[in-house]
Amino acid sequence: MTGVLLIDKPSGMTSHDVVFRMRRVSGERSIGHAGTLDPRATGLLVLMLGRATRIATFLSGHDKAYDATIRFGFATTTDDADGERIDVPDTPAGTMPSDDAIREALDHTVGPFDQLPPRYSAKRVDGKKAYDLARQDKPIDLKRASVALREWTWLGREGDLVRINVSVSAGFYVRSLARDIGDALGCPAHLEALRRTRSGPFDLFHALPLAEADHLGAGVEAHLIPMASALSDLPSVQLSEAGLIRVRHGNPIGPQLVEGAWVPASDLVRKIRLLGPDGALVALADLRGGLLHPSTVLAEPG
User: Fold this and answer.
1) What's the pLDDT tens digit per position in 125-146?
2) Sign of the CA dihedral 258, 201, 300, 216?
3) What is the spatial distance between Cα 249 and Cα 45, in angstroms, rounded to a whole number?
4) 255-276: per-residue pLDDT in tens?
5) Which of the residues 8, 17, 38, 107 is marked catalytic?
């Protein structure tokens, strides 16, 4: 099987657990995912099967959207509901920020900034994962990373729980956002729940619940998104039969070996999809010196 599969991950499983399950269900051994979800989080997990694992780099860097529930009143060791409660003695009991104060703090966060990842994260520090060091109570020198909060939407509030939807750049930790908003308002907070609703062009609405994928078995192949469609945001050219043969062997091609339009000059710095006569993705290429040079060949030499 080759293609992209959208799965609605349930809570309580790691992203690797889902990959392992789908290997058993589909019979395809080569499976990866485009962006980890914490075990407690639910929602959209983008899986690549077969040769589609070779386009993982182009899928994992997308912006993502989440429905997030932030609980105000106390922080935790992990910045989410899985951690131990951290009580701050000088925080007045029962003091909660107003809706307006929370909205203003979120507004001030919109845009690019340097974010400090959670101590319990997969970020590497001196070659070791931060969460391994945290569990051993060792000091962790985490570096801030450049991320962006694109936009946010208020979904509702019930007591100390505030629900928002956020659109963020790749590498953004919503747990850190909850922690930082609490710090900014003088009222400790943590992430109570998280559900990914979008990853790049992919939407949770089109995802297959994991239990349903289990039931379908090898029938999940009918739900695969072709690689050409999964990378539809990249420009493309369609190869002639002669061009297809050259590209399959990794050779560069010129305008005489494509059907239809050549690559616009504006796409010079982007990867170009090379599509076969049947519309299937054959390779990704770079435009250099007037020729398209395949950088990732996805079709068999044949």
Assistant:
1) 656 665 555 565 666 667 889 9
2) negative
3) 33
4) 999 998 998 777 677 899 999 9
5) 38
DSSP letters of 198-258? Answer: EETTEEGGGPEEHHHHHHHGGGGGGGPBPHHHHTTTS-EEEE-HHHHHHHHTT--B-GGGE
- As given in the structure block, the two tokens for residue 225 are 């998104």
Domains, in order of start, for the chain: 3-61+201-225 (3.30.2350.10), 64-196 (3.30.2350.10), 234-297 (2.30.130.10)
Place of tokens 């100390």: 160
| 236 CB-side CA count, 13 A | 21
- Look up 180 and say whether it is catalytic: no
DSSP, collapsed to helix, strand or coil, labels residue 150 as: strand
Residues in the chain: 302
Place of tokens 């909205």: 103
